[in-house]
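This is your field. Have a critical look at the following sequence-structure pair:

***
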Amino acid sequence: MLYRKHNHLNKFENASENLKLLEADLLDYNSLQSAIEGCTGVLHVASPVPSSSIQNPEIELLDPAVKGTLNVLKACCEAKVKRVVYVSSISAIVMNPMWPKKRVKDETCWSDKEYCITTKNWYSLSKREAESAAVEFAKENGLDMVSICPALTFGPLLQSTMNTSSLVLVKLIEGTYMRLVNDGDDSMPNKLRNIVDVRDVAAAVLLGYENPEAEGRYICTAHAIKTCDLVVKLRSLYPNYSYPQNFSETDEEDRLSSAKLQRLGWSYKPLEETLVDSIESYQKAGLLNGK
């Protein structure tokens, strides 16, 4: 099973010479210590992303996110790693009802812990708590850490299995998104969606690692588009799929700015390129019927 999960990595050019895979468990400090020993830099990109309802948030999300992240950072300190890039999420930013409604959310905004608990948004809670703990740990221990906070991430798959963010796009195309999120009817909230290409996220992570001027946290989002407008764009590209027909208006508008990341030298791909490359990769992997 483990081999199948990472087998796609071995297909990279020169992987046999340049790629070394080590087994590690976020909740097993010794395994992380062995993997990180000798590294000059660490990119911590792993955190559980649920595709269905959560039965036990503490075990399924919070422990791997918070305790796992702190284990990584402790091992980095012991190994005297020069810089860590921690991939967080805009979920650690946007769940904040106290933020002024018309003010664009920037890196100073944090999701509110109590609001996440009240609304049972366990993923946002896990990302908020993990990044907050990471920032505090890095400050207390003099660890150079940069946070990247990506929006909803689409793009071509490396693996042959579906990940949670890609599933959002697939279910939108199939017209079954509401059944995915809450067993609802076919009326879909026409909320504003912040989207970024996975290749642009990777570029942001590398920029955060390689640029000596990088510091603190960075919002990583490229396009803000209403759900209805996204469906119109998808239908113009792939007209034969079953798309949602009914939309309900909502005042959910998380307007974000990646200005700080762009000042560091980051740029992003056109939305149409991201959508086309995403869908064609799903078709190629047999995860979406080609039409």
